[in-house]
Amino acid sequence: MSTATLIKVEEYLATSYRPDCDLVDGVLLDRNVGQKDHSKLQREVLVWFANRRRALRLAAFPEQRLLVGPGRYRVPDVCVVRLPEPEEQVFSEPPYICVEVLSPDDSFPKLQSRFDDYLEMGVANIWVLDPATRRGWYIRREGHLESLDRVLRSEDGQVSLAISELFPSDAD
């Protein structure tokens, strides 16, 4: 849901929202977050990358603000960048991977504007994970492509993440 009040970029950047919001052309846009399944999957993605930080030379950030275009800021669920990590507080260069975790109210049509912003920014790897179905997709200009073998891979082949690794058994 968006608010009708226009927000200046300076105000957005100086304000902490809980949870953080996107800013698109002066309008604050809420993000669907806060449910346990979403949070758990987001955590598992972060841990997966943290455990491979040195080997992959990648760093993962939860809910990192991105300047995706003039007057447009997005906050992916997980943002993965190459090391050394950027010095800036709000990233302005395309991340290596943007990961979005679906919430029950999310749908691909609702998220398309977000995906378009990532693509326009030059993000090479956009992944979508659904905690309810344990499925994953790649977002490309050609469309949304499901990972039928349930392994998400970066376009350059550096990263290969089996979706099953993100769902530890309850005994763990």
Query: Roughly what percent helix?
Result: 10-25%
Distance, first to last CA: 37 Å
Tell me how many strands there are.
Answer: 12
Please give the order of strands in the largest beta sheet: 3-6-7-8-9-10
Question: In CATH, what is the homologous superfamily?
Answer: tt1808, chain A
Rg, Å, rounded: 16 Å
**CATH level 1 class label:** Alpha Beta
Taken together, the total number of domains comes to 1
Helix-strand category:
alpha+beta
Poorly predicted residue ranges: none
CATH topology: tt1808, chain A
- At CATH's second level, what is the architecture? Alpha-Beta Complex
Mean pLDDT: 93
What spatial form do the alpha-carbon principal axes imply? Answer: globular
Tally the helices: 4
What is the helix/strand order? HEEHHEEEEEHEEEEE
Largest sheet composition: 6 strands, mixed
- The proportion of residues in beta strands is 25-35%
Topology of helices and strands:
Layout: H1 9-14, E1 22-24, E2 27-29, H2 36-50, H3 53-56, E3 58-62, E4 66-69, E5 72-74, E6 78-82, E7 97-101, H4 108-121, E8 125-130, E9 135-140, E10 143-146, E11 151-153, E12 160-162
Parallel strand pairs: 7-8
Antiparallel strand pairs: 1-2, 1-5, 3-6, 4-5, 6-7, 8-9, 9-10, 11-12
